[in-house]
């Protein structure tokens, strides 16, 4: 019945799908129109930059009008004034962006020229010639060099990759294409390095034309004065409020005008993203260069350029005129984006304030002479090709085929889809494989899906730079009928109607959209768990198509978790296309035999092959771990708040940490300042401030008081929205930071719940908040970004229809998430931070009813490893729970839980009382800047906020403070030692015997001198790994051998359940959950035995890694592990795969640790064979 309904149910299209469907219609039906050129500059907002330079050149040289020129535009009154220059030229046409005419031109023009990117729906035809000019030599880091999510580069790298020509003014920009965007040898187009067409316009006479535009736009300009142009770049995330940025620009340029206006025209050219706000600010209009005026033409009449990080300064080098860098926000910007060059390399002086800049301009001649060497060095590096004839060279090459050389590719092109890139064995195996490939033989494209989680980003960063990264994103290139078939395929696989009408053309078209027309020789679905990537891999009809199988795949399909089979549907559907692959590649011989047997009635047996996963021996054996300071680096947060100066404040050029304090000025007490950034380092806080819209510098946090925000606008609404909250989201009693606001509760548990929104406010900080309710209960205020508003449920249809749709949606949503009502009723209310200490009074049964953050509706009984009736704990938070006061506590072993207040007796520590929580082993070396060394054998986490340099403590241990306050050392030669303080800002922490997990928590390594027998397991915390068997077996072992410890490395869905089991078995002291470790191997190496207790595996890489480390191994006796351990030659296999079987092998290994001899594993020979087997199985 569901299949029938699926076939007859009408399919609706979103706005982006309608656009795609319209474009596909023209793409499929329209032929290429020869000699037609479509130009697009900055998404159609102007006729500028290199496309404009090429257009002007061709228009002038093409006397016979052989070419038809089409410009993409977003119409505006200002742009119309530019368009009018060409309205009477018959071979020049203008089409509005995203109109039908635009889609037709995009689908039919022979030449496409863009200085940025075409939208994600664009599919380049093979006959089209796409020229991407880009828009500047990069000073700011670009592409995958940026400290950001690589997925953010998706559309730029796609546009570069599918282009036929990339224009480059210099070798640095060429490297940007090849390295920063990793086009490498995979790129099939040409990178032409002939200079910049847009710089040609600077070397032309534009004065009369520009003066006429200044008159039209009422720009205040004196033809007899030289020109100072201020052109700041876009700051991206660094700007919360564009209006405040505009006010600062106006105030600071007014300051310059006051001091230099008699001698100079002072003009302002803002970035296009800021232009609308600047244009609407009346005081700025007389000096604001309109967005439609070409920047390079403007530079031709500029005498002094002031900029920050804008790439136009590279262009300006051809003029030999002075450049000043006003870098007032450099500390924020570098923290956010990064640069390719240091400030010391720049061809002009840098200033931190407008006063400093003004003084530099007064001495322009001396500064010009001072920076002459830098200037000439940069000219030689960046503008050697710019002689005014760059456009001519490009036109001759591209349009006239002069000196054009298409490079030949002799390598095999391999495309591989890795899966979700989360922390699991598949991801590790994929990274090992692509990093082991021979890049002299293969061009490798890693075809990656949506990524936004930290672990995904970190894993992508582990991929070798030799591989090209392309991404799956955007609206798929399907027609409405194809979309319906695709939906059926996702739900039911290649069966029924889809088997007869498989939409292969849709998938071919989609891959052309995403990767262009490159020939793929081998296409691999490495993920192997879903039909979604499989259908796209199978779109390469002429390629060899491979699907990896990482496990006993039928067992995985039938695996049950919490009463459900998570992989049943996806794998059942994937099995329906198995026969369409050329090779089904299992990751071990035994797994291949199992899969061939179980799927013999479904799949052609000849397709089954195997290739074992490769290792990364260098990483496994390396002791390297990134150096880390004892405290995090200085954190800079971009904010936008008002504050009062409460005492005269010194103003510093930079945050005065780790450097001399250069005082710029002072700000008087009672002044009102605008705070634009907050820097935190240890206990010190500094604020970056503006005074009367002029940037002043950094001042100490103790000198100012932040004012509450105010509400600047309120809008009554009737919205229906889906929440996308996370664990770090909170509900507030009023919009955040408004006077009287307090935290009501967390909001992460409300994710995916539909709620009603009745009011939206904007605060003085520029942030928006909305008021929400659900289940007829007022929930509070949330950040505006934590909701998704569906047009379908908010105004697209008449009121009656919208109301009905909301009711249906709400009923479905409320039923699906009916447990959330109970969670709302049981949520913690009025949650607040709490500092202090307490003793716990135990009830008679020695158990305390407590609650975990993630299960507030289910009280847990646990003893929390409390050792005495006056157990000391740290208080973290206080809240109201079901009308009762509760505290979040932290125990000696760093466990946390919520307990009711009647168990808690708050206490105060004396100034000299030291409360030490969980002593941790560490062989650490602290290197001081002076070169001296301090060594310790113990580290303790110290919770005391009253430690002073003169305090004394009765202890014989050295103690380093590691809680982000100070680094403390106690003399150990006397029991009543004198405390000495070492400034941790002067220290670097060498992770000799410890590491940090993905959450930033310190994890000490096992110590041989402690004479503890250490077991370790590594893997995802999920049911099939059977950690509960290991924990129970270890608990039994521990009863007999208390000098033992179990390390559980990894993270996953059942972590809470496992920790609860450890508490129930009362073995908290002997079990460490390390969390996710980026490099677990040093910890593994220091253990005595590796244990794997999986129910099934494909090829257990962690066993191979343990063998590489030389670790003794205990494993459950399952086919894949038996195969790796060669029936016990390399390690112990359990006699029975249960608690008793695992415990017995633990005892056997412990009692015979010196007499058991296992075969030595040759990891080098293994890896060489593994990669050769892979080549053999994938070659066509």
Your description of this structure?
With 1180 residues, this protein is α/β, with parallel strands linked by helices. It has eight domains: 23-199, Rossmann fold; 205-381, Rossmann fold (3-Layer(aba) Sandwich), CATH 3.40.50.12580; 412-611, 3-Layer(aba) Sandwich (Rossmann fold); 641-703, Roll (SH3 type barrels); 711-825, SH3 type barrels (Roll), CATH 2.30.30.170; 828-907, Roll (SH3 type barrels), CATH 2.30.30.170; 916-990, no CATH class; 1004-1173, Rossmann fold. It is 29% helix and 26% strand. Strand 11 (323-326), helix 14 and strand 12 (350-351) form a beta-alpha-beta unit. The longest helix has 19 residues, at 242-260. The relative contact order is 0.06. Mean pLDDT is 86; it is low at 626-632, 854-863 and 910-991.
In this structure, how is the largest beta sheet organized?
7 strands, parallel
How is the largest sheet built, in terms of strand order? 3-2-1-4-5-6-7
How many strands? 54
Level-2 CATH architecture of the largest domain:
3-Layer(aba) Sandwich
Roughly how much helix do the residues carry, as a percent range?
A: 25-40%
- CATH class type of the largest domain: Alpha Beta
Overall structural domain count? 8
Distance between the termini: 43 Å
Topology-level CATH name of the largest domain:
Rossmann fold
Poorly predicted runs: 626-632, 854-863, 910-991
**What is the typical, i.e. mean, pLDDT?**
86
Shape: globular
Helix/strand-derived class? Answer: alpha/beta
**How many whole angstroms does the radius of gyration measure?**
33 Å
**Strand residue content:** 25-35%
The number of helical segments is: 37
Family: Belongs to the CDP-glycerol glycerophosphotransferase family.
GO biological process, one term: teichoic acid biosynthetic process
Organism: Vagococcus lutrae
GO molecular function: CDP-glycerol glycerophosphotransferase activity; glycosyltransferase activity
